[in-house]
Amino acid sequence: MKKFFTSESVTEGHPDKLCDQISDACLDEILKKDENARCAIECCAGYDRLLIMGEVTTFAEIDYEAIARKTIEKIGYKHGSFAYDKCRIDVAVHRQSPDIAMGVDRTDEKDVKDSFGAGDQGMMFGYACRETEELMPLPISLSHKLSLRLAEVRKTGLLSYLRPDGKTQVTVEYDGKTPIRVDTVVISAQHNSKVTQEQLKKDILEHVASVIPKELVDGNTKYFINPTGRFEIGGPEGDSGLTGRKIIVDTYGGRCAHGGGAFSGKDATKVDRSATYMARFVCKNLVASGLCDEVELQVAYAIGVARPVSVFVDTFGTGKLSDGEIADIVIKEFDLRPYAIIETLDLRKPIFSKTSSYGHFGKDGLPWERLSKVNDLKKYL
């Protein structure tokens, strides 16, 4: 059956993504000095000001304002009301609630992994499929490639009239579960007032849209470049931004369910982040091992309790074993307690800034993208 699926991405200059990057930059700076810090840092940006807020428990001392200004400059906001050296920055950070810490730091269990409870309740999802080399859905993979390319041509000066804000969107046509072509590409790129729309469209098609593999486009592929006709005012000057508001862009582009929890600014005791990373690790290894071609994993927790309250697997009919059998394998082969997740994925390191734009999954060099459990899983085939 022919069907279409669409995913979107945004550039690092999008106001929501800017907030994500500042939150994770602050987190990484804290973790460099205190790997056991507890952090939940969020940002809100609008027009000419930024608010950094949240809960942090650490002995590390950092300059939140300096980190924010450095991040804003790196992204490229050097002009306008939100320029890195002009915008107003307010900091409202306080210690983590002792009620939350009490659940994470229990001492009534003999095994430290059982004493270390989940930092919150909730359900987290992971996903993997065979559509791309990195085992990600094709629509979100292509959307990220387009938005990353928008930033590259701006930063290298190839298209020097571009500004930091931008969005991309890709619609892929499927024959059953097989992607066969790209049907529609939407690219909205912030620009200065000097470039004409005709020149911008020509350049975007030539230097940005060209990252889509030629075998996926044809004469019927539709392109919409800055469809409103003008995009001069962008970033926080044009729209407010908030940490955690691009969770679908961060994950799988809407292909699978989402528990609702955001990632950026949170340390690994927050299962919103760490368990979602672990779920991706599990799913990628399941697919790579050949146990299934597509899989969605749900893991649910209760605050203060180490072991998940439920583990649910859906292979969408592609499993070599039943979904129940694969769920049993997951429970046996992967330790899903928060302390064990942090150990397995080495999540006390300051690695989070690299996740804060262009997706948290499908990137080389991230521990949850390793295929280190494939051989352990192949024995079940």
Structure description:
The chain is of the alpha+beta class and 381 residues long. The protein has helices spanning 15-33, 64-75, 98-104, 112-115, 138-155, 197-207, 235-238, 247-250, 271-289, 323-333, 338-345, 374-378, and strands at residues 2-10, 38-46, 49-57, 88-94, 122-129, 162-175, 178-191, 222-225, 241-242, 294-301, 310-314. The strands form three sheets. Strands 1-6-7-8 form a four-stranded mixed sheet, with helices on one face. Strands 4-3-2-9 form a four-stranded mixed sheet. The chain is flat and about 65 Å long. The model has no long low-confidence stretch (mean pLDDT 93).
Characteristic key phrases:
alpha+beta, four-stranded mixed β-sheet, 32% helix, 381 residues, 23% strand
- Beta strand %: 15-25%
- How many β-strand runs? 11
Rounded to an integer, what's the Rg over CA atoms?
21 Å
- Bin the helical content: 25-40%
Q: How is the biggest beta sheet arranged?
A: 4 strands, mixed
Could you give the distance between the termini?
Answer: 30 Å
**What is the typical, i.e. mean, pLDDT?**
93
